[in-house]
Amino acid sequence: VNASPSIQSSPPATLSSGGYVYQVEATDPDGDAVSYHLEEQPSGMTIEEENGMLTWYPETLSEGVFPVLVVAEDDFGGRAEQRFELNLSFQSKGKE
Fold it and tell me: What gap in Å lies between CA 53 and CA 23, rounded to an integer?
């Protein structure tokens, strides 16, 4: 019986350096190799299949809520999902 991988990492809540970087970390209890992919993401977001490095450097930032679904899978059908949202809102500070 194959055990599914699990994702231990948590996504950062903020963007940094003009973009978003998140090292997804998953382990498999059977010691199977884990690969990563995105099933839902904003335009331009990518993840490296072999190591889980997720990056998003949008050319323009728009306000809104951007859903993300990260999947970690082993070669035997085991699967873990992590859903989160990036909520971008821009607030201007008025002069008092």
Answer: 5
Kindly give, in sequence order, each residue whose CB lies less than 8 Å from that of residue 29, ignoring residues fewer than 6 positions away. 3, 5, 6
pTM recorded for the entire structure: 0.88
* Buried residues in 13-31 as b, exposed as e (16+ CB within 10 A): eeeeeeebebebebebeee
Task: Yes or no: say if 24 and 82 are a contact pair by the CB < 8 Å rule.
Answer: yes
More confident: 92 or 60: 60
- Judge contact between 28 and 78, C-beta under 8 A: yes
Which residues, in sequence order, are CB contacts of 22 under 8 Å at separation 6+? 9, 11, 12, 53, 54, 55
